[in-house]
Design a protein that fits this description.
Layout: E1 16-18, H1 22-47, H2 55-75, E2 81-89, E3 97-105, H3 107-128, H4 132-153, H5 158-190, H6 192-221, H7 227-255, H8 266-269
Parallel strand pairs: 1-3
Antiparallel strand pairs: 2-3
Helix pairs in contact: 1-2, 1-7, 2-3, 2-7, 3-4, 3-5, 4-5, 5-6, 6-7
């Protein structure tokens, strides 16, 4: 009688769920508090200056306000969904297997970025004195970057995900071009203090923004870090890019008259009588 070797078997694997733990949840609450306190501070700073000179204060306060709402939603367990990926594992002596991976995606974060990053760009654009055309290009490129990042996070295939990621990176290069080339040139043409300040805070912002796609690549993209680590990384970047950026901008702006932007007319006084809509007035000779 000849012996028969046992037939290799494949044990089905259960789906893997990558979710945040208490560490990630506590981090979200901490950042929510930081954003809220920063917003209150920015609004208080706005009331210390005339309404004509509150442009930077209002934009900066709106940035942290939207961020606070976003972090509150994420901390409460809202604004979250799951991305689904099928990971194929190749084996030498047994059939290939697949692993179903479900990872938490905080889509509220992308909603936050789609509002706050254009506002932040406008802070820098008004500081430099960029033209309306350059501002529009930068804001549209920024929105393309955020939206394709969201599509990448929920991509049904890895090739599709990295395709969206590539589009986002190209759009980011357009943003860099508008700030680093046009923005720097306009700021330097104003005066040396404004030019030096813009270069410093602009470089600070671009370094931070460059870290975001790197984190995405090792988190949602390749899933090499867990959700808690992803939350902490984004939390650190958000705090630096919003409250720290905001305090630096506003304190310097208040101490440096050269950076002041004074807005009269509708911004400060409304429509007034001229140009207002009148209902019921009869024209002479009607």
């Amino acid at each position: 009688m000849t012996s028969v070797s046992p037939i290799p078997t494949v044990v089905p694997t259960l789906p893997e769920y990558q979710v945040a733990t208490d560490t990630g949840d506590r981090t979200l609450w901490v950042v929510c508090v930081i954003m809220t306190i920063s917003s209150l501070a920015f609004y208080a700073m706005a009331f210390r200056v005339p309404v004509q000179k509150r442009l930077f204060h209002i934009l900066t306060a709106f940035i942290t306000t939207f961020a606070a709402i976003s972090y509150y939603a994420m901390a409460m367990g809202d604004g979250i969904s799951y991305s689904h990926n099928t990971v194929k594992e190749t084996h030498k002596h047994v059939p290939d297997t697949t692993q179903e991976v479900y990872r938490q995606v905080y889509w509220a974060r992308y909603v936050d970025w789609s509002v706050t990053t254009p506002l932040l760009l406008m802070d820098l654009a008004f500081l430099a004195g960029l033209s309306g055309a350059n501002i529009l290009v930068a804001v549209v490129a920024d929105l393309i970057m955020i939206l394709t990042g969201l599509f990448a996070a929920f991509g049904s295939s890895e090739s599709g995900q990295w395709g969206y990621y590539a589009i986002a990176c190209i759009a980011y290069l357009v943003v860099i071009y508008q700030l680093a080339i046009h923005g720097r040139a306009m700021a330097m043409s104003k005066d040396s203090k404004t030019g030096t300040f813009f270069q410093a805070i602009g470089a600070f912002t671009l370094v931070l923004w460059t870290a975001y796609p790197i984190i995405w690549g090792i988190a949602d993209g390749s899933r090499n870090i867990n959700v808690d680590a992803e939350i902490i990384c984004y939390a650190v970047l958000d705090v630096l890019a919003k409250p720290v950026f905001g305090f630096w901008l506003l304190f310097t702006h208040d101490a440096m008259p050269e950076t002041s932007v004074s807005l009269e007319g509708f911004w400060a006084h409304g429509l007034g009588k001229e140009g207002s809509l009148r209902v019921g007035d009869d024209d002479e000779g009607a």
